[in-house]
Amino acid sequence: MNMKPIEARSGNYNLKNYEETYNDFNWEDVKKQFSWNETGKVNIAYEAIDRHADDPSMKDKVALHYSAPGREETLTFEDLKKKSNQFANVLDKYGINKGDRVFLFMPRSPEFYMSFLGILKKAAIAGPLFEAFMEQAVHDRLEDSEAKMLITTPDLLERVPQDKLPHLKQIVLVGDTTGFEGDQYIDFQKEMNEASESFDVEWVDLEDGMLLHYTSGSTGKPKGVYHVHNAMIQHYATGKWVLDLKEDDVYWCTADPGWVTGTSYGVFAPWLNGVTNVIRGGRFSPDDWYETIAKNNVTVWYSAPTAFRMLMSAGSEPVNKYDLSSLRHILSVGEPLNPEVIHWGMEVFDKRIHDTWWMTETGAMLICNYPCMDMKPGSMGRPIPGVEASIVDNEGNELPPRQMGNLAIKKGWPSMMRQIWKRPEKYESYFINGWYVSGDSAYMDEEGYFWFQGRLDDVINTSGERVGPFEVESKLIEHPAVGEAGVIGKPDPERGEIIKAFITLVDGYEESDELLEDIRQFVKKGLSAHAAPREIEIKDKIPKTRSGKIMRRLLKSWELGLPTGDTSTLEE
Ligand code: PRX
User: Fold this and answer.
1) Residues 94, 344: Cα–Cα separation, whole Å
2) What pLDDT, in 10s, does the model give residues 154-202?
3) What is the whole-number distance in angstroms between the Cα of residue 255 and the centre of ligand 1?
4) How far, rounded to the nearest angstrom, does the alpha carbon of residue 426 sit from its chain's CA centroid?
5) Residue 250 has pLDDT above 90, yes or no
6) Counting C-beta atoms within 10 Å of the first and last residue's C-beta, which end of the chain has fewer, N or C?
7) Atom 6 (ligand 1) nearest CA
């Protein structure tokens, strides 16, 4: 896939020369940007919001521009400081302490951001959940984290199995609370109205926890990836070099904060850089999206390949209706960015779409395309300054250029996860010979550009969302008609992959379209829409190893008509 590089255009970029910066780099210089470098007082929410709110030239600047169907709101840095202080006071009143897990299960809204920042100011640990999660998914995450408090809406509360969550003591309701009786319910608006606008931020250690993001692996329940305040160093730096954020920018990250992109780059990177942040609620539609750019004069736009592909297939009619000339820099994350999409971007926006690679576990961008750098379509780019990336074999030995292997990062970058919640052995298993091994396969070319090749495990990436096959299989077999289940990702031109399930039927059940739809709905209602299999195929048997592990690789080879490879461990 070696196409002609797309040359960088000249411009006054924050990162002027990639090689020079990379070779002559020191994280200590970045740390000098933070107030704690002088005061010793650390808190990421203080750096993101209060620091600007306390600066007379910045306090009235718009921090958050929120829009959703039927609602529009603008908050300055000073507004956000006051609102998050109020919420921190509410947490204080209800006995939330440093390190307590406070989860958020609600749509993107100004209340989400006030609460989220308030949690951090109170030195508690925030756990954002996708609004689309259904009961099982919500339960597993709240149970594992032993969350003490949940912030949600009255509508979503029916998906919270309160009786099965002994640690969950308090529920803050955002919205109309009539009919909710009981000491556990707290009325968000009422408490906010009564709370003081000043709060003494709780100072923490750089290594203290701030965020728990649940993400999927190929085995077991989702795991809690634990991030600490220190991550701000890299959020800030990548905001500067990769997003190329400058004072006058209007920035829009399309990701939901239930996903790490929506926190690291939907909260921290823009606000640490003091930039106006656009948040759009509601569903995706090409018109709404283009309108968001046009109406807010968005200059820097961070989105995902699935979204770009959907915009691409919507054709030129919607795009031609809007003036998108404010855009100066476009970026992508989450799945491989097809060269075709980059070429489409050149045509309709006259801009390159810059791919970035990272993961929930890495906390921030690691391998990127920079505005100052020539871009090779199909490549994820080169490591950020201060980070060493390589391709290693299974023992952690580095491989020469063009050889495929494990994409690995030298342990110890600032935003690296510090724990897998309550699972130290799982955490250790990511590191081999001093390298963090990502689970992605890739190769590096002679010029140090990295090229993504695929996942090495069975994790499915559907529309940029990571789905663990085990979680879906577990839900499937709860359906009375399903005996066994094996779940794989099947390549799909728009979504990257779709979820395909192979199942066996329990005796007495007959295959029918209604039954398959019922099974699909069962997963959708129990887990989440994005985890529901788009295709279900009935088999007599699900292939397993002699030790009882589902051989998803074999299912995949069958599906794709590929050679089945080594099947020596297959049970007869
Ligand atoms: O397989 C890689 C894919 O997404 C995985 C990480 O998913 P998640 O933790 O949900 O975080 C996504 C956003 C940070 C990776 O292991 N991935 C992410 N970015 C890219 C990518 N695959 C190809 N190209 C990318 N730029």
Assistant:
1) 52
2) 999 999 999 999 999 999 999 999 999 999 999 999 999 999 999 999 9
3) 13
4) 20
5) yes
6) C
7) 359
Residue 548 burial (C-beta neighbours within 10 Å; 0-12, 13-18, 19+): exposed
- How far, in Å, are 178, 293, 309, 398 from residue 408 at the CA level? 52, 36, 28, 9
Query: Quick one: tokens of 203?
Result: 């100072």
Express each pLDDT in 429-484 by its tens digit. Answer: 999 999 999 999 999 999 999 999 998 889 999 998 899 999 899 899 999 999 99
Match domain 29-36+44-444 to its CATH number in 3.40.190.10, 3.40.50.1240, 2.170.30.10, 3.40.50.12780: 3.40.50.12780
Please name the amino acid found at residue 295: K
With the most atoms of ligand 1 within 8 angstroms of its CB, the residue from 254, 452, 458 to mutate is: 452
Contacts of 447 (CB under 8 A, 6+ apart): none
- What ipTM was reported for this prediction? 0.99
Give the nearest ligand 1 atom to 365 CA: 14
For the chain, the domains span 29-36+44-444, 459-560
Determine how many CB atoms are found less than 10 A away from the CB of residue 389. Answer: 23
- Closest residue CA from atom 22 of ligand 1: 335
Q: What is the DSSP string of 236-268?
A: HHHHHHTS---TT-EEEE---TTSHHHHIIIII
Ligand 1-lining residues (CB < 6 angstroms): 215, 260-261, 333-336, 355-360, 380, 438-440, 452, 455, 461, 466
Span from the CA of 526 to the centroid of ligand 1 (angstroms): 25
Query: Rounded to whole angstroms, how far apart are CA atoms 79 and 133?
Result: 30
Indicate if 459-560 has the same CATH topology as 29-36+44-444. Answer: no
- Please state, in angstroms and rounded to a whole number, the distance separating the CA atoms of residues 305 and 318: 18
Within 8 A by CB and 6+ apart from 222, the residues are 137, 140, 141, 144, 214, 215, 216, 468, 471
Give the tens place of pLDDT for each residue, 109-138: 999 999 999 999 999 999 999 999 999 999
CATH class, range 459-560: alpha beta
Which residues touch 202 (CB under 8 Å, ≥6 apart)?
A: 43, 98, 121, 122, 123
User: For residues 65 and 358, what is the distance between their CA atoms, to the nearest angstrom?
Assistant: 26
Residue 188 gets which letter from DSSP?
A: H
Two structure tokens written together for 92: 């204080």
In this predicted structure, the answer to whether residue 410 has a pLDDT above a threshold of 60 is yes
pLDDT at 3: 67
